[in-house]
Amino acid sequence: MKKSSRIPGFYKVTVDERRALVEDAAGVPSGTIAASVAGGGLDAVTADKFVENVVGTYALPYGITLNVRINDRDFLVPMVVEEPSVVAAASNASRMIRDGGGFTAEVDEPLMISQVQLFGVPDRERAKRLILEAKQELLALADVAIPGLLSRGGGTRDLEVRLIGGDDEGMVVVHFIVDCRDAMGANLVNSVAEAVADRIAALANGQVGLRILSNLCDRRCVRATVRVPIASLVTETMDGGAVADGIVNASRFAELDPYRAATHNKGIMNGIDSVVIATGNDWRAVEAGAHAYAARNGRYEPLATWRRDGEFLLGRIEVPMALGTVGGTLRVHPGARLSLALLGIEAASDLAMVAAAVGLASNLAAVRALATDGIQRGHMALHARSVAVAAGATGDFVEKVAASIVEARDITVGGARRALANLRGESLPPPASDPVPGGSAR
Ligand code: MEV
Question: Which residue segments constitute the domains of the chain, with CATH numbers given?
Answer without folding.
Answer: 61-108+224-373 (3.90.770.10), 111-214 (3.30.70.420), 377-424 (no CATH)
